[in-house]
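Figure 2 data, in text form.
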Amino acid sequence: MTKIKVSAFLFAFIACISTFAQKTNSDKYSTEIEKLSKQRNVQSAFEHILLLEPQTIKDHILLNEIPAPNLLEAKKALKFAELLRTAGADSVWIDKVGNAIALRKGTKGKRVVAINAHIDTVFPEGTDVIVKMKGDTLYSPGIGDNTRGLMILLTVLRAMEAADIKTEADILFVGTVGEEGLGDLRGSKYIFNESGLKIDSWISVDGESIGSIVHEALGSVRYRIIFEGPGGHSWGAFGYVNPIHALSAAIHYFDIDANDFTKQGPKTSYNVGRIGGGTSINSIPYNAWAEVDMRSESSESLDEIESILLKATNKALVEQNKMKRSGSDLKLQLIAVGKRPTGTISPDASLIQKAMAVARFFGEEPQLSIGSTDASIPISRNIPAITIGRGGKGGANHSLGEWWINKDGHIAIQYALLVLVSEADLSK
């Protein structure tokens, strides 16, 4: 009994010490941000963000009306690069995969801090992206996700130039390609895997609320399943293997086993998002396909649910071939079309603590969360990285009815600027 009481006392004591340390740490960063916000040139930058509002909205509409489907972002990237150049960046370039990058040199240049927003949208080529304005609301596919993110980068750069803010670290303003869907974080992966750029910390602008700070990477694995057979007439070739029958069975087996698996352990999800095949109602199809998305907080769980998919598809293949009465065997292709890593940056990391302190400075209670954004790549490499919100008020993201209202939109820009300058160190 005595031991239990002592253990309980120790546990409570340790918890108190931990809480005190967290509060002390929080107070330290809050004091730092408060002091930074009062610097003359930072105040000037805040004022310029407000003065730039008409130009920000004008360029927001201009950029959004340039279509940017996956793999077809070049025109929008070029325009964004042009705007960064005229805003005062020291150098601007389009890299090998199409990312638009601007460098603003620091006074010391020993560190590199990047701020990023993605250029691409989920919408296919031919989508009408002309902005319609009804009252104070802008309607257009991509208007929030993520043209507004690009505008935060551009306006932060313009405000820093106008206020003559100098930072010790070099700053990269990065418009990435291929963030959405089957783009599979193409732009971010290139930057961290092949570009040769050395980046010390990374800030993505995506999502909405400035109080939400993503510090964990949600992993995903995506597959295209393809069953192929000889095809034929539904009467004359009856008895041939049927790709749609096999695909239907595969999805059924996967759904049963994946459902059981995801009921426990780290949160894991799965979804068959697209399906197709066949030529007519009276033809045995020569192929059938489906696209599957699997996500998890845990890399081990991702591996397991991927294994469940492979077993289900192979089981369906074997069964369909056993049912064959004539003709050639059914064939199966499993094509990996996406893989996003998992990872976590400790909440104690200075970048996260600064972002939380800035959120509180603007009257928001910060919430740490998990997501799949361009920041996932540096997070998976244990490079300090977060995703912050683009602000304003919006909705219907990823739909043709997407909308955005400039409700206190300037606050998100000021928020991004303060996080960026605190991380890049204001030059004395």
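Caption note: The chain has two domains: 23-218+343-424, 220-340.
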